[in-house]
Amino acid sequence: MLFAPPALSRRNSDSRHRGITLMEVLISIGILSVGLTTVVALIPAGGSEARRAVVEDRRANLCMSAIHDAIVRGVLDTSNWNALPTEPFRIVIDPLGGATLGFTSVELSNLTATSVATATVFQGEDDLSYSLENSGEEDPPVPLYFRGNSRRLSEGSYTWLATLVPSPPVATGSTAVSQYYLLSVCACYKREGSATAFNVTAPATGKGVGRSIVFPCAVGRDRFRSLFPRGGVVFLHDTTNGGVETCDSRRIALATQYTDENENQMAEVMFDRPTLAAEGSTLYAIEGAVGVAEKVVRLEGVSPWAQ
């Protein structure tokens, strides 16, 4: 019978019972740390995308319901306006924010800025309020109601404003009576202040003709991001297009701020669809504007249907 040499037997025994080295432990800890860091970094990103999805869903519902509210609650009835501008009408109705967008601001006799009903009409009610004070660890949040009322309370983060312009657009100074108007409803999320105006210097070229514009924008980076977020909404008021006054809403596809060769702080904004805005037009940015819905309507009091 043959036996292996003693030295070879010890070497085989040591290799079979060898443990994990310190270097292998350190490498494993490093790999695990990288994996855990990646997972932790995805949590806030996922929360941000979830909040964005909620805003997108609620702003769509708010825009459509606001159009119906404008029709049902007499916004299209000229007898409810506090003043009757010269026809054809180009007006904005914004009792909560006071934006003009270059047009005549009109108040409603039944929905003034100080009226309690105004907040009810021009605010969305999808962001319901809850309380966690009287709920246990496993109990659901308790919904809040108006005192002595069965109506649910909402956070009031969503608001809207409306504009009315002739459809199709008519020349500035024309006294023709328009039968049809374009009703545009702009939904806002956590709106801050009124509209900020910027003078458009020229349409940008070479990056999607007709889809982007350039204008001076001497605001800070944080302010710029809040005014021109991706997916946000701006209004373009133009009176240079052959004498035809227009006010179109556009969603922002991309916005960037830069310094030109003359050390001027400029901005370029690209939209989701072409625009006719040219040099001399005005861009109005509303912080928190997230969506727009449009509908061609006929005003009550002007339409034969209301007679």
What does it look like?
- This protein has one domain (49-306).
- Strand 11 (244-259) and strand 12 form a beta hairpin.
- The chain has a 7-stranded antiparallel beta sheet with strand order 7-13-10-11-12-9-8, with helices on one face. The chain has a 5-stranded mixed beta sheet with strand order 2-1-5-6-14. A two-stranded antiparallel sheet has the order 3-4.
- The chain has 307 residues and is an alpha+beta fold.
- It has helices at 6-16, 22-72, 116-122, 221-227; strands at residues 91-93, 104-105, 130-131, 142-143, 158-166, 181-189, 195-199, 202-203, 212-216, 233-241, 244-259, 265-271, 282-286, 289-297.
- The longest helix is centred in the N-terminal third of the chain and has 51 residues, at 22-72.
- Mean pLDDT is 80; it is low at 302-307.
Topology (SSEs and partners):
Elements: H1 6-16, H2 22-72, E1 91-93, E2 104-105, H3 116-122, E3 130-131, E4 142-143, E5 158-166, E6 181-189, E7 195-199, E8 202-203, E9 212-216, H4 221-227, E10 233-241, E11 244-259, E12 265-271, E13 282-286, E14 289-297
Parallel strand pairs: 1-2
Antiparallel strand pairs: 1-5, 3-4, 5-6, 6-14, 7-13, 8-9, 9-12, 10-11, 10-13, 11-12
Q: Share of helix among residues? A: 10-25%
The SSE order reads HHEEHEEEEEEEHEEEEE
Strand order of the largest sheet: 7-13-10-11-12-9-8
Number of domains: 1
Question: In angstroms, what is the radius of gyration?
Answer: 30 Å
Low-confidence stretches: 302-307
Number of helices: 4
User: What's the total count of β strands?
Assistant: 14
Report how far the terminal alpha carbons are from each other. Answer: 120 Å
Instruction: Classify the secondary structure makeup into a structural class.
Output: alpha+beta
Biggest pleated-sheet summary: 7 strands, antiparallel
Percentage of residues in strands: 25-35%
Question: How would you state the average pLDDT, rounded?
Answer: 80
Global outline: flat
